[in-house]
Write the structure tokens for this entry.
Amino acid sequence: CWRWCRRGVRGVKLEYFKAGRKICVTAEGLERFMRELAAADKPLPSKPQPEPALTVTCAPRTDVPNRTEDAAIDGQIGRSA
């Protein structure tokens, strides 16, 4: 409460009075404070749209022999031991 009275929030201060060493606020003052805060509130920024995913395609390499195909041709794959 002290901070809202003395420093405020977003430029809006809560009205108060002191009774001895105590800070006191009224229900009407608190209601005004909340109304002014709501009016001073900025709308939240809209959610940024995600960037479209890049599709990467790779052509098969022709300069390296495909060992899986070679092994299958030689009959090494699928042979039971």
Summary: Residues 27-40 form the longest helix (14 residues). The helical segments are 2-6, 27-40, 67-73.
